[in-house]
Amino acid sequence: MKILVKNYLDLDKTQSDEILKIRNLKHIVNASLNQNEITKSQHENFIISLKNSKNSHYFAIFSDDEIIGGVHFVLKNEPTWGLFFKPNTNAILISAITLKFLEFCFKRCEILNASVKKQNENALKFDKNFGFKITSNDDNFYHLSQRKDEFHYHLKTELMQKIAKIADEFMISFDDLS
Predict the structure, then answer these.
(1) In the chain, what is the greatest distance between 2 CA atoms, to the nearest angstrom?
(2) What is the strand order of the sheet 3-7 is part of?
(3) What are the tens digits of pLDDT across the range 21-71?
(4) 114 by DSSP, 3-state: which?
(5) Does this model's pTM top 0.85?
(6) Which domains does the chain have, with CATH numbers?
(7) CA angle (11, 16, 19) in 5-degree steps
(8) Calpha distance 140→142 (Å, rounded)
(9) Residue 74 DSSP label
(10) Per its UniProt record, what SUPFAM superfamilies does this chain match (predicted)?
(11) What is the pLDDT of residues 129-141, one digit of tens each?
């Protein structure tokens, strides 16, 4: 299986349309901070805005030349990250991609935050498995955080060691991306 990571800015029109189609899948919309379906015009304007941003990193994930999802890292006041994948994407592959992406993020910040909808128990468990802890919550979301030193310590756990080995087999890399 060949895994490719590609910046949204480098996607061709067909690929850009495909990432929008995946983002607008019902299960992804329902789990997103912004629960509105994104129009093609909004998506195109968003891509244009990324050209002028050094703080926002959005990547499409390809498996054997098919887009399977996306990940993002926004380095503003509070660095945040997120991800989405097509249904039925292999959970081990998602974990391997996530590990490599978190390594990418923690090279650029000291603390990383995420928000998870309260009814999305799978996402909450997933983030906790990667060492994130709930720092607060409101009516709709759990807010999670992790420091770089906590992440590096968590990498030593048996689960993270297994995921790292798999990630290396897939040869997933965000290192050459901006």
Answers:
(1) 45
(2) 3-7, 56-63, 66-74, 80-85, 111-117, 141-147, 133-137
(3) 999 999 999 888 888 899 999 999 999 999 999 899 999 999 988 999 999
(4) strand
(5) yes
(6) 3-170 (3.40.630.30)
(7) 115
(8) 7
(9) E
(10) Acyl-CoA N-acyltransferases (Nat) (SSF55729)
(11) 999 999 999 999 9
